Amino acid sequence: MSAGMNGSPPSRVSQTRDHDPESPSLGKQRPGPWPAGNCHSYNPRAAMGSWARRTGFKGMELGNSNGDIEINLSDGTHIPAKPSDLSGEQPPVVRDLGAGAKVKGAKNEVLANGMKVSNEKVETLPLKLAAVRGPPPPFNAVRPVSKSAESDMSKNNSGQLRIEPLRIYKDLQDDAMSPSHDGEDHMIMSKDLHLKYELRETPGLVPLIIYAIQHYLSIAGSLVLIPLIIVPAMGGTPEDTSKVVSSMLMVSGLSTLLHTSFGSRLPLVQGASFVYLAPTLAIIFNPDFANLTKDRFKTTMRELQGAIIVGSAFQALLGYSGAMSLLLRVINPVVVAPTVAAVGLGFFAYGFPVVGRCVEIGIPQILLLVFFALYLRRITVLGHRIFQVYAVPVALALTWAYAFLLTESKAYTYTGCSFNQRGNRTATLTPECQQQMSTMLSCRTDVSNALSTSAWFRFPYPFQWGFPTFNWQSGVVMIAASVIASVDSVGSYHASSLLVASRAPPPGVVSRSIGLEGLTSILAGFWGTGAGATTLTENVHTIAVTKMGSRRPVEFGACILILLSVVGKISGFIASIPQVIVASLLVYMWTMLTAMGFSNLRYSETGSSRNVLIVGLSLFLSLSIPSYFQQYDSDSSSRLPIYFQPYDVAAHGPFQTSSKHANFVLNTIFSLHMVVAFLVAFVLDNTVPGSRQERGLYIWSKGRTARKEPAMVKDYGLPFGLSEFFNWVRWVGL
């Protein structure tokens, strides 16, 4: 651990690096929001909102200085920053470098913004220091420049004057994903200051268990809530819901182990993504399956299995063929942000309409989540942010206990309306009893018998619902979902790599990871989980909060998931969560998903009118166009609940050709919010002119550079020496 963890900032080591086109110190390709560009076209006014705010740069008015800076010359000369005389004697006032003044003997202007400029003769540069808050940091140590570095620097005939801001020590209580920690701060601030364990480090047994529990409990909602929506919609019983939950735990554990070993090798959990939820509901409410009266659940599940296998096979081909490396050139933050945000915003019709069925339970659940995640997020217990990390499970436990007390106190027991009649189809209920029965079904905690009917031990196995059925129209819908899932994963890879690794992965590693996600989603089709297994976007936020960059706790937790999947009572317990509480949790999870989508915009110029209009238009059309499809010639007498009617669009959409299957594909795809957002943002971002910095292009490491760096080879290389056998397939590796 660095000295900065004990309260004293570590000493800075000034070192001239070999010429690396990706080296941040040379102003070339940088992680985070700094795209590659020509330093001579640098606009200091454009950087005032980012670099200046982080480094304390102030505009040169009335002789103000830029703060503590140090200078490294191209010949190895180091001019350290000198602290102001504490006795009150001020150093001589000189022209400020940031104002474009020329240093005596300099041929070109010097910018005090971290960029390099040409200079041949440099004399003494007295520098005025800005006020330092708190105790001043110790002087920075200077490491002698190696001969190889000197010879490499001598190749530049014009000479280089590099002015660097000193290290800035930030509040360690801030989230690692806040603007103060991303982008340029990877060059200014040591990574050790915000990570407890780095990517390849292995914690001890106790920290391993603690962080594994933290990691998976914080994203528990994303792991297990999808079956609680889709299985009842398919006509499944609570016991069927329990079986699907156990299958999902099994597939999630296997997929995570495969991904951390043979995929991106980043600590990312694989699970049922919300990207697949809307297409799944569209297939479920296809008239061919919605009108079934016999064995509807298994028939629909087999159709979903076949569709997921087809879509996942396309995703695997997209990755392993190297096509994903080409798509990375046109998939940028301005495309990813509205696409991922539309996934969360697209479920607005399900959120509060279901919560409102029992507001005395649903609203307290939402308030608890907000209170824990926001107001108590800085409260730590034994160094862990208990309330922020465990917001979902703690709020779930408290609300469930509260609802149980209401049920046991007979708050939902009405005279003349027995709750035992809920499953009796022949019983005649009065209008008043029907209304009370609806309240009881929504508010009571003893509605589901999943816990009592589940076996203690049950091993989920492939094709447990029967052999999959394949129909091309369902497969095309899932192919569209797999493309959106790949776009979602690209943003997760980039964000998580900046949190836990020195650099973003090369395009080949991204392609390899997308291909493996396709293979793991095929496993989801074999086991019949109803949704593909891809990277959970919410996992990136968990890494930022827990500050756990090691992949070992994620792998350990994946093994625990596999063991839990065979304990039927655990799956039955999860399946018995009341529907209103599930909806309240989903409101929070979809909010997190939307926020994680918008967070990708931090890599671009968020104030650009170009980007604002593209993102705004993408989001508006992603809500408006699907509404047009969903409301077009709709039947107001539909028997579906109002929150499921948006997915029953295949039969009444505007596309009415002679082919019923083509109508289903076209009406369904253009009624999906995420697809419309992706298409609009993709076309606009790649056709509207904009600079690289304005667009905020994702910067991926170059494969040739990555192969020459032992650290990157260890971070992203395949285990067991497998990388040596795949040296010829650069498009899916280092």
Automatic annotation (TrEMBL):
Keyword Transmembrane attributed: yes
UniProtKB keywords: Membrane, Transmembrane, Transmembrane helix
Record has S-adenosyl-L-methionine as a keyword: no
TM annotation in the entry: 208-232, 244-262, 268-285, 306-328, 334-355, 362-380, 386-405, 556-574, 580-599, 611-629, 664-684
InterPro entries, per the entry: NCS2 (IPR006043)
GO MF annotation terms: transmembrane transporter activity
One Pfam family recorded for the sequence: Xan_ur_permease
CC annotations in GO: membrane
Region (Disordered): 1-45
Subcellular location: Membrane
Membrane topology qualifier: Multi-pass membrane protein
Chief site of localization: membrane
Family: Belongs to the nucleobase:cation symporter-2 (NCS2) (TC 2.A.40) family.
PANTHER family: XANTHINE-URACIL / VITAMIN C PERMEASE FAMILY MEMBER (PTHR11119)
Name of this protein: Nucleobase-ascorbate transporter 12
Organism: Ceratodon purpureus (Fire moss)
